[in-house]
Give the backbone structure.
Amino acid sequence: MNFMNTFRLALRALSRNKMRSALTMLGIIIGVGAVIAVVSIGQGAQYLVQQGIQAMGTNAVYIAAGSGRPGGVRMGYGGVKTLTVDDMNAIVQGIPLIQDAAPAVNARDQVVYENQNWNTSITGTSPVYFKIRNWSIQEGSVFSDQEVDLAANVCVIGTTVAKILFVGQNPVGKTIRIGNLPFRVDGVLESKGQNVMGQDQDDAIFAPYTTVQRKIVGITWLQYIMASAISQQASVAAVGPITSLLRERHRIRSGEDNDFFVRTQSDIAELANQTQSVMTMLLGGIASVSLLVGGIGIMNIMLVSVTERTREIGVRMAVGATESDVQRQFLVEAVTLSMMGGAIGILVGLISSAIISNLLSWPTIISGKAILAAAIFSGAVGIFFGYYPARKAAKLDPMEALRYE
Amino acid sequence: MPDQNATPPENRSPLAGSTPLIHLESIYKTYDLGEIQVQALRGITLEVRVGEFVAVMGPSGSGKSTVMNILGCLDRPTKGRYFLEGIDVSHMSKVELARIRNRKLGFVFQQFNLLSRTSALENVELPTVYAGIGPEERSRRAMESLTRVGLADRAGHHPSQLSGGQQQRVAIARALVNRPSILLADEPTGNLDSRTSVEIMEILQTLNDEQGLTIVMVTHEQDISEYTKRTIEFRDGKVRRDSMVQKRLIARDVLKTLPTAEEQAAEDAEENARTETVSGVDAKP
């Protein structure tokens, strides 16, 4: 009884009840189709993100306080108090690769204008921040260095905040309330849209860091420093010197972790990529659950099939089928079902990802690995879930099977 | 008092002297059902020679099904030995027994047991599949077997498209496709009307007389047993009687006396017309 024989027999047996075979395969088709579609779309998203990041190509270097271990306690971002404006000045003066640097302090607060209110992020920084981030003002102007020195209650707002609070009016010159404090709006920033993490960059307010430090948050340190290098290569090359400088200034001994971290734009891109990757895998994992369900469906139907075909199994044994012949037959039937379902599922997955990418104008990347994995998985599902019914069939007693009603 | 389980000398077949095809020696079969033990066979010794046509009879619980299961290598005796073509098969492994069933035995059942939604040809091919024969050879042998039972023109039909008699003939063709020496039939006419039953007996008699096929058949119908040559009666797990059939019926001759299907239909129509008039119902034209 060679394999080709068994395979052909399995197909004949399955075609005897086409409707049932088709319905059983449906579970696998949906499972595999979902996984392929999700992975293709996810990879397309990743590609888009990468493209976007490549297009930006800035020289930004981002230095944040935190993920260090001062005194042995792990502090997350923002909990560390050692990053200061003096650090920032030292970096600009001491590292020629770095061109500009701006300090940053974060807060979040309720913002009110007349009868509109909104909860948004308030970032305290200096005017050079906007140069570093290549962010122009579309109305009015940025606050000045003098206003920083004076810790003036002034700010610039993003277009989302402007739309929500000022509904059609010109915000420049008006006074809004941040928390309990009045702030005069000096300008409105141009629209930047979403960042690679999917956050709305226009939903933000910027004010002098001195004001935010003293009057809103009540701290003297910084949460991060935004710097720019003289070139993209320089931004990568600057990471080392910045790290050494800060370690020295913060008196961190060798062997101890940094109480800050330094990221270049490419680091951020890599992070975004990884995050996307995890998301894709997570969704793929969830879609795989339906594959599992499909497998259970196969086992279910095979068990019903074995019971229904008890007499047939008895006859096969009577005319000379051994236990292993019967087991092999039913196992191959199960695997045939699952692999055919897998093949159709792959097709369905490819077609639906093509349709979705058309609708979203989003590229979908067909992963050869995913297809191979889907094929192997559907085979494995067939073997795993087909084993028990096949065993049951093989263990039937031929005499009783022949007498079965 | 002679041993009631031995075949009396005057009842041995004319081929006596050659090795018997089937030789059961002191066969016991006990079923263990937990608390109780059922002794289905209590010391059976018998022989069947080449060319015999044996009817196995007895009430339910007599052991006739058990002995058929053992003869068919579907079950092993608890005690005793079973020689098939001179070889002791009583303690062979399941795989070896499967091989023997495939090569040396043919089975025909009361309920035909054909695969539904499958052509007659493919049904007949089934034993050849497990004999490891290639597809072309399988079809050829199956066609040959179907021709032997006169159903070559129905090779492509599915069981649902065949009458009971035709289905049983397909089953016989299947039983014979690997050219076994013995045909084991379990109430082959049980699901058939009287005329079709005789047609099937005609086929079996032809196979037995002209082609020397040895047949062992279980039946509970006395008149069907009269088409065979020898009757073995079982009772309470023992052989009660083992005798040659005295006035053997020849199916071909009996068929000539029975009305054909068309004649039967015409008779029934007449009968219906008569009863309607008698009961006072207006006979409609």
